[in-house]
Amino acid sequence: MKNRYFSIAIVALLILSSAVVAVGASEVPTVSVKKATFTFSSPEISQTDDNFIKLEVSGATTTTHTDGAPILPVRKVVYEFPMGTIIKNIKLEHNDATTMKLPEGMKILPCPTPLPLNSANIPSSMPMDEKIYGSSNYYPEKWFSYSIKVGLNKDNERTTFLIVDVYPVRYSPKNDEIVYITDANLKVSYQEPATKFESKVKEQYDLLIISASAYMNEMQRLADHKESHGIKTKVVCVDDINGQGRDKQEKIKYYIKDAIENWNVKYVL
User: How would you label 170-198 residue by residue, b for 16+ Cβ within 10 Å and e otherwise?
Assistant: First the structure.
């Protein structure tokens, strides 16, 4: 029987907004599990016109996208959970990794960096992250990584998103070799909130309009038109936004965040 290897991440992230409160906290939450199984092909190697290596793996859904770092296959998985969910444990079990030597002196194609629209300062060669390409360590460091974000889903519901990137191939540039796996099992343990979270909303709006002072009259006319069609609308002058944030742009960002949480705003103009 093949050995099994485990990559484990322990997290305990409880995301609560100041604009939500728990109702009926007497219920005891239980730990639930989501599972996913992945199958990957062995990497197929091809050569680019500028003598870099490209890897193709069946079962991957995208690639890494870090400027100057090697482009490697990725299987991306996105889970949605109710706001307030705690991610307790993330574990990846996989088969024995296989080592493959690459053509000596050839490197895996790096991810291109953004270029200016004009022709000035365009590099003559593909930019490469020397810290990665000059190392014998495997990149990425682990077989998977994850991030947790909060936002609205397609139904405009406040949601905790867990994004997991599984890397079927890892690369040691200095040794001109890769290691790869062909099957993996992902297990996510999580705890949903024991109670339903509801907004403390005194006012509700469908549309938030942020306007310069010179256009406030016109924007109010637009808001009146929207209201006549059943779209609850609030107009605010950008000069009146002076809350949290280092500059005006960040203040506007936080104002929109607060509007979503406090007024259930769905659209912003």
Answer: bbbbeebebbbbbebebebbbbbbeeebe
